[in-house]
Amino acid sequence: MRPTARPSSARAPASLREPRIQPMKPSAMNKRKLKESSAESAENISQVQKILRERFCHHCAAGKLFGMEQQYRHLLELLKRTTVHGESNSALIIGPRGSGKTALLNHVLKDLREMKQVRENLLEVHLNGLLQTNDKVALKEITRQLQLENVVGDKVFGSFAENLAFLLEALRKGDRTSSCPILFVLDEFDLFVHHKNQTLLYNLFDISQSAQTPVTVIGLTCRQDILELLEKRVKSRFSHRQIYLTNSFDFKQYIKIFKKQLSLPDEFPDESFAQKWNNNVQHLSEDKTVQAVLQNLFHHTKDLRSLHLLLMLAGSAVTVHHPLLTAADLQEASRHHSTDSKANIVHGLSVLEICLIIAMKHLNEVYDGEPFNFQMVYNEFQKFIQRKAHSMYNFEKPVVMKAFEHLLQLELVQPLERPSVRAQREYLLMKLLLDSSQIMEALQVYPNCPTDVKQWAASSLSWL
Amino acid sequence: MYAERIDKPFCVSSHLSFFFFCFVLNNNRKVFVCFSFSLGIMNTRQQSKLIYSWYGKPLNSDRKLRTSQYTGILITSESTKTEACIQLGDFILVEGVNADQPYVAQLMDLYEDGAQHKRAVVQWFCRLEEIPQNKRKLLKREISAQEVFFDQVLGYDTDIAAETIIKSIMVLPLHLGEELPIITLNREQTFYVRQSWDGKCFKVLSPDTFSKLKEANKKRGVITNSSKAFIPSDILTPVKRETGSVVRSATKSKNPDMEIESKHSTSKSSLAKERHSQRVANNDIKTPTARKKLELNSPTRSKSRLLGCEVLGLLDDDCDSIAPLEPSATKRKVKFPSEILGSPPKIPCSNDKSKSTIETAEERQRFSETMQFSPYTKVKDFSEKDKNLHEKDDILSLVGYQKPSSQIPVLTPRSRRTCAQKTSALIAEQISMLDQEDFQSGSDSSYSSNSEEEEDDDMPCTPEKKPKSSRIFSTPKSSRKSAVHTPAKTPKKTPLQGTPRTPRTPRTPRNATPEIPRRIQAAQEPASVLEEARLRLHVSAIPESLPCREEEFQDIYNFVESKLIDGTGGCMYISGVPGTGKTATVHEVIRCLQQAAENEELPPFQFVEINGMKLTDPHQAYVQILEFLTGQKVTATHAAVLLAKLFSTPGPKRKTTVLIVDELDLLWTRKQNVMYNLFDWPTQKHSKLIILAIANTMDLPERIMMNRVASRLGLTRMSFQPYTYKQLQQIVSSRLKGVKAFEEDAVQLVSRKVAALSGDARRCLDICRRATEICEFARQKRTPEIVRMAHVTEAIDEMFSSPYVNAIRNASLHEQIFLKAILAEFRRAGIEEATVQQIYHHYVALCRVEGLQSPTVSEIMAICSRLGACRLLLVEASNKYLHMRVRLNLSQDDVMYALREE
Known about the structure:
heterodimer, A: 464 residues, alpha/beta, Rossmann fold, Arc Repressor Mutant, subunit A, two-stranded antiparallel sheet, 7 strands, disordered N terminus, B: 902 residues, SH3 type barrels, 6-stranded mixed beta barrel, 5-stranded parallel sheet, 21 strands, 51% helix, magnesium (chain B), nucleus (chain B), P-loop_NTPase (chain B)
């Protein structure tokens, strides 16, 4: 472990950090003192950020599981029976995205590998529906992961049919007591369902239901209707063992999770800093504004991945001069987290483009959401220019067209059909992808918006 | 053996394929497949060119039956004008299922039936391969490949079509204790019989049959000597050759063939002799696969020879005739015996010195067996001894030869050869090239097959493997050493021999034995009652009997049994929803039938199973069936052709085939030709094919099959009803017999629940298994170890409860509000579909009511896609943003129910 106090001049990294620190606090008075302390805290800060980043980005098994003890035990027992007794099984782990399916499985596998009776006694095959897009690829991958390909020798891997027969033969030869059990993990299980005839699933489940090599098939999916997707024969062979993961915790537990996720571990080198940090986290969790922020997030989504995202954003605000998280950091992060992306784009538009959007909004109101074309928008804009506008310059039609096309590129406007060569651009039917409330909000914060435009936006009939 | 049937047009192709064979052989053994494939095609074509005609006048004819008997049959090859005459009492080869392994029989009668078909009545002999594996050990001795058994099995059809006769051979009766006589030549055509086989046990030949067989042999000898078609006339041939006449005769075409075969076999032996001798523990002379392949070589070779006009043969023979002088050129010396071969029917016994080396090798091997059991310790001196022996042999054989073939100037061979070389130096070179390749391929094939065998043999005793393989390396060297004596030819050969084949013993996937690694720690046996129960309740556990399917079992059993006894074919269609025991019952039937066949209550049959789900393509069904039946591996289209031939031609000794086609509906193709063929074969007269087709839907034939397919499937149908709760209960309790793990009521509850839902036995067993787990889980709280109602209920709930309600209840607040907004929009619009924009307005209103901060559109979209990913909602592609249409994936009532509970 590193000594806590060290002369900064002796260390190279400190000099690297200096330019980052200096512009922030250019006080010349106690420069040397500051340097020393800042170097020391810089070390700590980088440590903290490293720990937090690892925790939030890598969904490693090291992190603790929250609220799935029962599922954990079920899965662990299941896999243990496979390895120890050679019992074939199949199971599905179902839960919404970010509910910790993979984390649970990794956790179980890690604990399983550490068990004495299990060590070296389980072959694992990991497949992912996004990677193994058809059975042929999946079979190759299985053979590779089972290291059966060396048996095939120098021969180029045979046809799909040969391959399947080969693998089935291999699995058929085994029996419960003598063969090494195999664990098949099918991530994105729902995508395997779309393979032709569901051959792979049928065969895997069939093996798991017959006296062959012991296998356990674990599928991970977020689809609740997964069983309806299975073909009837495949479904019958599946053991119907479903492990549901739901984020069933309440807000109190959510706060606890928040604390756990932010706290520094005991092994942190600088104990005093760790304590200071942890106290601050404790303090934060009791803070009203922080609770409001968390409550808001909790109301939106319970999955821990978005909490991680929020904490990542907040955590990146931590610097040498701002060594501890504050409620404001979290608020800022929350604001970032929940901004409307489309409305953000509107902020950067020119006044002409804003005018066009307002024209489209009026058209939507008049025609009740019916699609429009450029000519209609242009006419609407012309009406506004002629009758009402004093501050607006009357742009040429091509210029307006250009602005309209820019909106098209920003996907604020979407054509109903693909633009063909024959159709004139002016008469292509379009739809606006913004809600009127979004437009109004964006106008509120739009800098230097002419008043007449604002008035026009508020009421379509004001020019009458 | 194919030489007689070779027609000129095909020579070219065979020639080509032969070359192809030679070249690729060095790299990969897999070529054998291709080769036999091409041969197979040729064979089928050649058959059409053979003309079968009666020999002589009808002996006596039956007016009523309109049959007339004959004494012999002439087999004429149209294009080459070769003739072979087969008489009553001759031993013959008959086409079998496997083209490489024709049946052996004795011709008893020949007649023409009313429909002008030529028929033959035969007495069968069976090869070792035809005897069931489990009966072979009754023999208690090693059987050489040339040994056959006098077949007394009833039930084989002895009346065959005369067109299936291939050619005549020799079968020599022997007493049980008698050593195998050393046959000189064409081993492929000489068989021995020592015992008879009646399907149950082996018996010594009765003196009666023995003498009959002996007589038949003698008679045959006389006949062949007198019949001009069969005179091999080795005395004539040299003369002819000297004059260089190009007269074609039956002998001409036959001679090269025989000579080649024998030469070939010797070439094998010369290379393989040491390997033979070193192969100790198992007296594995009989190497069926290798032999098969070697046999295959011969026709092409002879063809190429034929093609290359008479001069080539002449020259070649010239070269051969010199060989005996040179002691080590063992492969050449056999040429003499091959020429003499045709005439002397009584094969010289042990005192005859003109025996082929393969025999000596065999014999020697037998010696070596008795003498030493650790070959590779003494290999060196042994091989030397071997060589010495060889030399002696050669000299002796020379002496033996001089008498019969006095005309040949054996002692002045060199001049002859030089003369021959002078006359046609260019051609000679070509021949030698050809010859080398022959030799090369022959030896190569023998080599590789041998080495592979060896490897297989050695498998168990791994430590020995290394030294042995090093011995393999030495083999070509030794042949090279011996080759020094024949400077004229061998130098070219040796580099070829030495280089390519030694290092590799490639294993093709066909021979590869895929295996999952063994487990390191032993599997634990069940310790508690619950674990025992769980093991028994696993679907994979095979019960002793299948309860509740007795009727279906009996029906299927009766169907197959009757067809088996009749020796006819038929189809049966079995339907039923998944998990009703279709496949299990059929397997049980097959198991019982196999048992019965073993106990001789039923004729033996072959059992093939294919599963539509385990095929990547419907046409792969052909490949799998053919592989099961004959072990050949070919492409789908070719397999279809072969199977069609197999099932449409009368295979006299073919067993009935029982074919199970599981998941029949997946064999559907647009043209339905797979199904059509499958169901068409059993309707053919000679197919002896029984098909049990299994699928889920009862009306599959009517629904997806064309009329012609459905009509061939027939109306023998059976449907498996879903299990009733009583049956399910019985199934579970029969499995749990003797294990007190379940409350009676608990089992009943499971059965009733499953019977009400699907009647799927698998489900029932799974629930019970899960219940034991739950019970075990709860047991740690000191409750007695028996599965009660509560456990079962929990297991049922776990498996059958709808996940949606729970998912909605555990959703976040805003997700729930979104669902409410959807409901509100649906109610407003009256359509069960809405765009996000419409829902958004309701959503904002609801948030205001709840006093929540209304979220931004981005957040709404996130919620929507999250719910869409769980499939609580069905959503369109997200690029439509606000105009994306949304639908509920469950009923509105369910959503309301789930939301109200809060």
